[in-house]
Automatic annotation (TrEMBL), chains A, B:
InterPro entries: DtxR_MntR_Metal-Reg, Fe-transptr_FeoA-like, Fe_dep_repressor, Fe_dep_repressor_sf, FeoA_core_dom, HTH_DTXR, Iron_dep_repressor, Transcriptional_repressor_C
Sorted UniProt keywords: DNA-binding, Iron, Transcription, Transcription regulation
GO biological process terms, semicolon-separated: negative regulation of DNA-templated transcription
Organism: Anaerolinea thermolimosa
Name of the protein: Metal-dependent transcriptional regulator
DNA sequence: TCCAAAAATTAGCCTGCGCTAACCTTAAAT
DNA sequence: ATTTAAGGTTAGCGCAGGCTAATTTTTGGA
């Protein structure tokens, strides 16, 4: 099991740059491109701020290129992104397992703490927490993406099929309201459910959890990944 | 048991100011005055930087007064200092108990993490860790100073008396070398020892730990507080 | 093909928090 | 009493990382 055998001798980026890097990593992985305007929304800064930060990041070799489709992380940038994502996820597990923090509250807390974890501490955490492959929301550690093979967005599940929720996407974690809603409805990794109706013209679908029914908009449903064909 | 029933509605200071506050709190408590030059040494910044930071801190009502004996924390300042000290100490315990980090490494790690702990998390930590009254080095939580009553500096123990090490002072924690040395020699809270010789003209004293003897300079020895009269 | 909307950039501003160099002030020590 | 050392302050600088306002570039749709 390769942990990307990190040399990691480059100096660590500032917390701000670490936050840019981790968001850009996921953007590039799941959307194929990095759009500064989206980044600005997700990081809650003005577009102009992103432009300026990109300049410093290019100077410091975390990224290359400019403009619409031109921005990409360098190898060093990707390594730094992987590092902070690992620290984020390990912190989330520590909060969940040791301090019993509910999973709709771990993300924000972890976003502050992640920048303060030393490499030695990261290693101690990984050992204490049993070398997890996904975060408490089911998102894969960098390098462990294979474990999510076979998990599909809830929007692609045919009506009537029973599935198990496995993953709430990183970008859904950014919305505490959505996350709280999902947790309150009992929609979290491990939950069994079944799609009972889809209304494409309405961009909604309805699922059953036990006795309860919940209607979700497509954008939210696309953030939920489920495992199909649970039983043989 | 009063936790200083914190209203704590003031916005939290920046990490830099939090570090100033916690050091100033201990200075005022144990030395009676705040000397900017000492602060500069302990925080590893230039004296001019302290002067400028003091200005902002006065503007923001964390402190009042200027000059040699004039600087004091406000009530708000003391409350903010207490808050970050609590977070620091709880973080140290988490590192020690959950992640098995040795106590000569907890301080530096905690100094980064302490600024990233939310009030809710602080509360979860206190519960999980059993509401401790002292940090792993034996320093008291703000408000719990009474537990250190009866602990005296090692320099005040007469030759021949058996004592138990209870506390390594906050300001010794700032020196990783000293802390590592002490831990390697087995000098840590709980250790039994005996003063076997004092050489005041040499500013050293020698203690026995099991079979081993260790000679300490007075400045280091003054940072060690011990419990006398252990047995009746 | 052209145009409007979306995205990106530049200019100019601000604060926090570092630094050095120079200069005061205060407190000891001779 | 005077001098020296310790402590403190001011001035002037730099960088990170925010902002708004104005402008330019891209791009997808009519
Ligand atoms: Mn973060
Ligand atoms: Mn997560
Ligand atoms: Mn700190
Ligand atoms: Mn401590």
């Amino acid at each position: 099991m390769p942990h990307t055998g990190k040399p990691e001798n480059q100096p660590r980026p500032t917390p701000t740059v670490e936050d840019y890097l981790m968001t850009m990593y996921v953007m590039e992985r799941d959307y194929g491109e990095i759009i500064a305007a989206r980044l600005a929304e997700m990081l809650n800064v003005a577009p102009a701020t992103v432009a300026m930060t990109f300049r410093r990041m290019e100077r410091d070799q975390w990224l290359t290129g400019k403009g619409r489709h031109g921005v990409h992380l360098t190898e060093t940038g990707r390594a730094a992104a992987s590092s902070v994502i690992r620290r984020h996820m390990l912190t989330e597990w520590l909060l969940v397992k040791v301090l019993k923090v509910p999973i709709h509250k771990t993300h924000d807390e972890a976003h502050n703490i992640e920048h303060a974890i030393s490499p030695e501490l990261e290693e101690r955490m990984r050992e204490s927490l049993g070398d997890p492959q996904v975060c408490p929301h089911g998102n894969p550690f960098p390098g462990a993406e294979e474990v999510t093979r076979g998990w599909v967005p809830l929007t692609e599940v045919p009506v009537g099929e029973k599935v198990v929720v496995r993953r709430i996407h990183e970008f859904a974690e950014n919305s505490p309201e959505l996350l709280t809603f999902l947790v309150e409805q009992g929609i979290l990794p491990g939950s069994q459910t079944e799609v009972i109706e889809t209304l494409p013209f309405n961009q909604t679908l309805t699922i059953r959890l036990g006795e309860k029914q919940v209607t979700l908009g497509y954008p939210a449903a696309r953030f939920l990944f489920v495992e199909r064909a649970v039983s043989a």
